[in-house]
């Protein structure tokens, strides 16, 4: 799917017409499952959701059929990104006179502390380094919003500007091609611009333009773009329901000061991406790039990795199932350690044989029931750095567990083979 196909796909989405602003988008995304669009009552711009709500959709956008093909394509794009061509901004975008109150900021759950943009990709550059990454945004008024920034690449750029006594210029992309969004969620090494990764995934069919005020490189394959700065001002942000369905805590976060808005000239009616927290689209966008990272880390020490799944019950973040073809005892311990290296937020890793369906929790549980013995197959790592999303951790400090649910190589394999339905 190229950029024009993406816009055609938006135009043809199932349309639910006008809906209430609060909670209804959450109910629809949970009930409908498939991609859809709607217009929020009293708001000039519409929304779409569930465009990346299944693994099958991701593989369709990537042009692949199997897990390992998808992982390899994403890792290759991160390791060998491709610089896109640049075009004229005015050929793709036009300025519109709106403020933040004209955008569909949404309260997704009753527990949310305010109304949010969730599909917002922040693009910022300093010197020759650019970064694109997702950050939730809570509206304060028509020109200001609080941005949740974790200590990663945007935070590093932001702090570099603060050290200079300057605000950080940013462009905010509010809807783009699924592979642009996948690349923006992937967190490549600092200095690798995610738009170059997206261009590699799109096979050199992505173009960029420079924004009018701050000359930030943004994709032409976008619906709405905001320009502004992240200031030194702090404001309360949260609570906000995270991928585990638990309200995140209230924090003091930097304030985004809005300046200009632009819409794509190729759209009859502009739509922004509303990612419902804790549902499939949120989980896949966050988790799928980490599956690829785990796969890449494990394949470096084990020659036959079949699949990786970050589980739905763990928010696609804390628990992984890794399927391998085991060749000798001791393989699994190496696989477990490599998985933790590939995704440091992991809390539990279960390693299974290639005959176990990683998408079937009953199959995985059966493997644990019939192939796991704690005295030889349980790996516990105490007091390791994990994820602050885990409420049982102490500021992210957690105990990690690996489970060897594979067949022993020195036993008759017939003892561990499940019969089929006659």
How does this model look, in words?
By secondary structure, this protein is of the alpha+beta class. The protein is built from eleven helices and 21 strands. The chain has helices at 3-11, 24-32, 55-62, 67-79, 153-163, 178-184, 194-201, 280-299, 331-342, 361-371, 374-377; strands at 14-19, 36-40, 46-49, 85-86, 93-96, 116-117, 121-126, 129-134, 137-139, 144-147, 168-173, 207-210, 217-219, 224-237, 251-264, 271-273, 305-310, 319-324, 348-353, 378-385, 397-405. A hairpin with a 4-residue loop joins strand 9 and strand 10 (144-147). The relative contact order is 0.12.
Q: Which descriptors apply to this entry?
A:
422 residues, 9-stranded antiparallel beta sheet, 2 domains, 21 strands, Pnp Oxidase, Chain A, 5-stranded mixed beta sheet, UbiD C-terminal domain-like, 27% helix
Short description:
The chain is of the alpha+beta class.
- Strand residues, percent: 25-35%
Rg computed from alpha carbons, rounded to a whole number of angstroms: 22 Å
CATH architecture annotation of the largest domain: Roll
Termini gap: 42 Å
- CATH class division of the largest domain: Mainly Beta
**Tally of separate helices:** 11
Going by CATH, what is the homologous superfamily of the largest domain?
Electron Transport, Fmn-binding Protein, Chain A
Q: Describe the global form.
A: globular
Number of strands: 21
CATH topology title of the largest domain: Pnp Oxidase, Chain A
Domain count: 2
Low-confidence stretches: none
């Amino acid at each position: 799917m190229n950029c024009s196909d993406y816009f055609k796909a938006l135009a043809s989405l199932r349309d639910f017409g006008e809906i209430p602003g609060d909670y209804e988008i959450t109910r629809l995304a949970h009930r409908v499952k498939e991609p859809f669009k709607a217009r929020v009552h009293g708001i000039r711009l519409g929304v779409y959701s569930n465009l990346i709500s299944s693994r099958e959709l991701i593989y369709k956008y990537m042009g692949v059929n199997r897990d390992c093909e998808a992982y390899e394509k994403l890792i290759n794009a991160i390791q060998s990104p491709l610089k896109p061509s640049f075009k004229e901004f005015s050929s793709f975008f036009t300025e519109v006179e709106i403020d933040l109150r004209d955008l569909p900021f949404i309260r997704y759950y009753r527990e949310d502390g305010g109304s949010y943009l969730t599909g917002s990709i922040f693009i910022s550059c300093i010197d020759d380094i650019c970064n694109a990454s997702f950050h939730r945004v809570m509206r304060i008024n028509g020109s200001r919003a609080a941005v949740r920034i974790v200590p990663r690449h945007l935070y590093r750029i932001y702090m570099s500007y603060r050290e200079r006594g300057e605000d950080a210029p940013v462009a905010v992309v509010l809807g783009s091609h699924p592979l642009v969004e996948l690349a923006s969620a992937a967190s490549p090494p600092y200095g690798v611009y995610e738009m170059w990764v997206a261009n590699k995934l799109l096979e050199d069919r992505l173009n960029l333009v420079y924004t009018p005020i701050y000359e930030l490189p943004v994709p032409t394959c976008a619906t709405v773009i905001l320009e502004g700065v992240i200031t030194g001002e702090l404001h309360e942000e949260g609570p906000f329901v995270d991928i585990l369905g638990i309200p995140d805590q209230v924090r003091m976060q930097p304030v985004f000061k809005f300046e200009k808005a632009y819409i794509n000239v190729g759209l009859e009616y502009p739509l922004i991406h509303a990612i419902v927290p804790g549902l499939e689209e949120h989980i896949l966008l966050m988790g799928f790039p980490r599956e690829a990272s785990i796969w890449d880390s494990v394949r470096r020490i084990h020659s036959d990795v079949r699949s990786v799944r970050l589980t739905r019950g763990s928010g696609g973040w804390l628990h992984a199932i890794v399927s391998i073809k085991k060749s000798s005892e001791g393989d699994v311990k190496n696989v477990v350690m490599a998985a933790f290296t590939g995704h440091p937020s992991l809390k539990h890793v279960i390693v299974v044989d290639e005959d176990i369906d990683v998408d079937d929790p009953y199959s995985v549980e059966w493997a644990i029931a019939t192939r796991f013995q704690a005295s030889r197959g349980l790996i516990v790592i105490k007091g390791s750095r994990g994820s602050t999303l885990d409420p049982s951790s102490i500021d992210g400090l957690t105990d990690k567990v690996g489970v060897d649910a594979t067949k022993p190589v020195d036993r008759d394999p017939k003892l561990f083979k499940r019969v089929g339905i006659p």
